[in-house]
């Protein structure tokens, strides 16, 4: 049986020697890429403002700046309402909004 470890808080902790990181840590590669720009072109929607107005008329609530991030494929999250609104607007299944990255 091993003896219990006693930690004293009034003594300095030993510093750990870790090797330097040779490259910066990166997040996971995106596996899904939005096709909103392509679908906009196919439906002759030239500006994000026009897309935003059409989605707003359908009852989809999204700010213009957030929609711009969606169109530029730089958003980190998507709402189900937005996905359904885009699929309805472009008359396609939700899966057609994405391509493999």
What does this entry look like structurally?
- By secondary structure, this protein is mainly α.
- Helices cover 35% and strands 6% of the residues.
- It is built from four helices and two strands.
- It has a two-stranded antiparallel sheet.
- The longest helix is centred in the middle third of the chain and has 10 residues, at 48-57.
- The model has no long low-confidence stretch (mean pLDDT 84).
In short:
This protein is mainly alpha-helical. The protein has 4 helices and 2 strands.
Helix-strand makeup class: mainly alpha
How many beta-strand runs?
2
The end-to-end distance, rounded to whole angstroms, is 53 Å
What is the succession of H and E elements? EHHHHE
General shape: elongated
Largest sheet: 2 strands, antiparallel
**Share of helical residues:** 25-40%
| Major β-sheet strand ordering | 1-2
Strand content: 5-15%
What's the pLDDT, averaged over the residues?
84
Rg (C-alpha, Å): 24 Å
Q: How many distinct helices?
A: 4
Low-confidence stretches: none
Protein name: Helix-turn-helix transcriptional regulator
Domain HTH cro/C1-type: 62-97
Organism: Massilia aquatica
């Amino acid at each position: 049986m091993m003896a219990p470890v006693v930690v004293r808080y009034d003594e300095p902790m030993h510093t750990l020697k870790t090797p330097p990181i040779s490259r910066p840590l990166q997040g996971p590669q995106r596996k899904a890429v939005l096709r909103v720009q392509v679908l906009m072109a196919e439906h002759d929607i030239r500006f994000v403002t026009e897309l935003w107005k059409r989605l707003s008329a359908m009852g989809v609530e999204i700010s213009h700046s957030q929609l711009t991030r969606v169109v530029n494929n730089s958003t980190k999250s998507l709402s189900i309402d937005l996905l359904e609104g885009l699929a309805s607007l472009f008359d396609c299944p939700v899966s057609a909004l994405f391509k493999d990255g």
